[in-house]
Write a structure and sequence with these properties.
Order of helices and strands: EEEEEHHEHHHH
Structural class: alpha+beta
Bound molecules: zinc ion
Distance between the termini: 41 Å
Radius of gyration: 18 Å
Helix content: 40-55%
Number of domains: 2
Largest sheet: 3 strands, antiparallel
Shape: globular
């Protein structure tokens, strides 16, 4: 496995364990060239899951793309990569349960939002603003006020995220 740090091609597995549902194996690896550690996941190859885009075109489900999108929403938030991986596992499983092996981008968005909301409210709002591409500012605030009615936002969001709010306003 190529090291993400130095691109060296020599590593050893330091830890190996199955995911909670047993559908994948998580391996911690140590690069023998630069010593940095990274994680790989091994899973059974199956019929590719197809994503139906807004314009009706289809493309294979890209786990990495979704991971990057969610990580962006979680920037500077107390959300671990492992939590995000688990979230994507859930999305993949929900989509994979459908016999047709197809899922629309909006279905993915809703699934992610449902899970992300339980993990971190700020990340949830960020993701919502991108994924739902709020047509107007009112629907954005509707989303926020529905969050504010939720007790769990008290205190947990720290100083709030005014930068993000003003950026959204400018867009
Ligand atoms: Zn390395």
């Amino acid at each position: 496995m190529k090291c993400p740090n130095c691109e060296g091609n020599d590593d050893r597995v330091v830890d190996s364990r199955p995911s909670e549902d047993g559908s994948s194996i998580r391996r911690r690896r140590e690069c023998l060239v630069c010593g940095s550690r990274f994680t790989t996941y091994e899973r059974v190859e199956s019929v590719p899951l197809m994503v139906i885009k807004k314009d009706g075109s289809r493309q294979p489900f890209d786990r990495q793309k979704l991971l990057i999108g969610i990580m962006k929403s979680c920037e500077k938030r107390p959300v671990t990569t492992q939590q995000i991986e688990q979230l994507i596992d859930q999305v993949e499983r929900a989509a994979g349960n459908a016999l047709k092996r197809e899922i629309t981008t909006s279905e993915i968005g809703e699934l992610v939002l449902k899970q992300l909301r339980k993990i971190d409210e700020v990340a949830y709002i960020r993701f919502a603003s991108v994924y739902r591409a709020f047509g107007d500012i009112n629907s954005f605030f509707k989303e926020i006020s529905s969050l504010l009615q939720n007790d769990s936002i008290d205190g947990s969001s720290g100083g709030g995220d005014e930068d993000f709010l003003s950026r959204t306003w400018e867009e």
